[in-house]
Amino acid sequence: MLKIGILGSGSGSNMQSIVDAVEAGTLDARVVCVLSDVADAGILARAARHNIPHHYVDPAPFKTKLEGAAEERVIGLLQEYGADTIALAGFMRVVKSGLLQAFPRRVLNIHPSLLPAFPGLAAWKQALTYGVKVTGCTVHFVDEGIDSGPIIIQRSVPILDDDTIETLHARIQVEEHKAYPEALRLLAAGRLRFDGRRVLGT
Ligand code: GAR
Fold first, then answer.
1. Residue 199 is part of which domain span?
2. Are 50 and 96 members of one domain?
3. CA–CA separation, 15 vs 4, rounded Å?
4. Distance of CA 109 to the CA centre of its chain
5. Which of 104, 131, 152 is the C-terminal boundary of a domain?
6. Helix, strand or coil for residue 190?
7. Assign residue 199 a region: left if phi > 0, alpha if psi is -120 to 50, beta otherwise?
8. Sorting pLDDT into bands at 50, 70 and 90, what band is 121?
9. Which residue's alpha carbon is nearest to atom 6 within ligand 1?
10. Is any ligand 1 atom within 6 A of the Cβ of residue 14?
11. pTM of the model
12. What's the pLDDT score for residue 48?
């Protein structure tokens, strides 16, 4: 059984999809804690509603990355709660080598585009502005780069003529909520294996 620690900065709908899969018995895992760099993030309120231990970790002095004292505190909490798998779920900071070395090949992320297209912020807006006709979401292992780690699962969605950034993000999120539990299911089943940067077994 996976012991998942979740890091997020936002509303937590992806965290909800993981918790729902665990509670429905379709994902052999336990969410051991939820951590956020945003004190009033919805993800912490959702964790509270499910009686999952949750903490705000002050990310200061950094604006865009998790490093220094905050990184140490996050690693400490994850170890204290016995996490063996880390799921970044809308965590809007770059994680650095300290976390990755503490949980080698066990840190996953979900990104709202078909990587390697549109890494970085507001990927759904990047896709809409660029004019591609298909986008989607990607669940991948996290490496030292930005949204560059080995890909586990991708799901695609069409971009429609009358899409706004809101309607497109909503369509991508429907697929995210299927993709993240599915990737974790494959990990829990021991199905995933590496061939260079390819992830096989999906
Ligand atoms: C999700 O769409 C996720 O893919 C994205 O933030 C949203 C969080 O939503 N993550 C990134 O853009 C990371 N670069 P949620 O808080 O409802 O899960």
1. 109-202
2. yes
3. 10
4. 3
5. 104
6. coil
7. beta
8. very high
9. 90
10. yes
11. 0.97
12. 98
Which amino acid is residue 92, in one-letter code?
Answer: M
User: Ligand 1, residues 14, 15, 152, 167: which to mutate, most atoms within 8 A of Cβ?
Assistant: 14
pLDDT score for 198: 97
Q: Are residues 153 and 197 in the same domain?
A: yes
The distance from CA 75 to its chain's CA centroid, rounded to whole angstroms, is 16
The pLDDT value recorded for residue 147 is: 97
150 φ, ψ (degrees, to nearest 5): -55, 135
> Does one domain contain both 156 and 127?
yes
Cα–Cα–Cα angle for 163, 164, 169, rounded to 5 degrees: 95
| SS3 of residue 9 by DSSP | coil
Provide the token pair at 195: 């061939």
Q: Each residue of 169-181: pLDDT tens digit?
A: 999 999 999 999 9
Confidence label for 88 from pLDDT (cuts 50, 70 and 90): very high
Number of domains the chain contains? 2
CATH code, domain with 177: 3.40.50.170
CA atoms within 13 A on the CB side of 148: 6
3-state secondary structure of 34: strand
Q: How far is the CA of 63 from the centre of ligand 1 (A)?
A: 18
Tell me, yes or no, whether 97 and 116 share the same domain: no
